[in-house]
TrEMBL record:
Presence of the UniProt keyword Signal in the record: yes
The protein's name: Ketosteroid isomerase homolog
N-terminal signal peptide: 1-18
Provenance organism: Nibrella viscosa
Domain of life where this protein originates: Bacteria
């Protein structure tokens, strides 16, 4: 009984420590979304982006600041909110993901899921987003923005790894996808809480659904560009480009977590496809 009580105390303590870190990123995301409602989507993005932030333009990663500075104002309202969130042990990096929809004159005209990576920015430690990527999909049966946020059940472990270590892992995965196919290459790297996002499809969040997806996907050629790792070396992201012959190309975002007992595991992947329409 003493051992059980001790384990419960340790778990409760870890959860109590983790929640404030995650809560900061959830609050930042909600404030970001509220700013868009009160002003415009353009104003909100320019307010909450880091100077080096990346967004996806026609499926490919691009600097966010010049894109949004040149973007015209729109009367459409982009409405979103976090459903899942996690944060690094050091508290300097976190991410949220959840549903979004676009409303024009009170009518919802588009739906999807977003994914945002956040970081504290020096010298004032303000939270600003580093990268934002999402997918569009059909209208869900429940269009409500969630009130509560799901926190990860898998704990992370600090490491001394930096972005170059994560980029090497990305290159290993890219090579194995081409050599072995999608499912055999991905499955050893996936977290038990992995989430995969594909254009025009609802998020794949269960192990059977993810496995079935990977078994049907053709291998893609991935080329990582850059990313960042938290100070505690337990959370990081990489973005880049992908291509399949001449038929498909686009950009991708992957979020990685250094899990206790497992090392780096892929917790989230987004593919954004480039439209060939002129």
């Amino acid at each position: 009984m003493k051992l059980f009580a001790t384990l419960c105390l340790v778990f409760t303590t870890l959860l109590a420590v983790a929640q404030p870190r995650v809560a900061a990123f959830v609050s930042a995301e909600r404030a970001f979304a509220q700013k868009a409602l009160e002003t415009t989507t353009k104003t909100a993005f320019l307010t909450y982006m880091a100077d080096s932030a990346i967004v996806f333009v026609n499926g490919k990663p691009a600097p966010a600041k010049p894109y949004w500075e040149q973007a015209p104002e729109s009367p459409a309202k982009l409405i979103w909110g976090p459903a899942v969130a996690d944060a690094s042990r050091s508290g300097d990096m976190g991410y949220t993901t959840g549903p979004w929809y676009v409303e024009v004159d009170g009518k919802r005209v588009a739906h999807g899921h977003y994914n945002t990576v956040w970081s504290t920015q020096r010298p004032d430690n303000r939270l600003r987003f580093l990268i934002d990527a999402g997918v569009q999909h059909p209208a869900p049966s429940n269009e409500r923005i969630p009130d509560s946020v799901l926190l990860t059940a898998i704990k992370s472990q600090a490491s001394s790894d930096k972005i170059n270590d994560l980029l090497r892992l990305e290159l290993q995965l890219a090579d194995q996808i081409l050599a072995r196919g999608a499912a055999p290459a991905y499955l050893p790297y996936l977290s038990q809480e992995a989430r995969l996002y594909r254009p025009n499809q609802f998020p794949f969040v269960s192990a059977p659904a993810i496995r079935q997806l990977l078994l049907t996907e053709l291998p893609l050629r991935f080329k990582p560009i850059d990313g960042q790792v938290a100070l505690s070396g337990d959370l990081g992201y990489v973005y880049g480009l992908y291509q399949s012959g001449q038929s498909r190309e686009g950009g991708y975002l992957r979020i990685w977590k250094h899990e206790i007992g497992n090392g780096w595991r892929l917790v989230l992947e987004v593919l954004n496809e480039t439209s060939k329409t002129p």
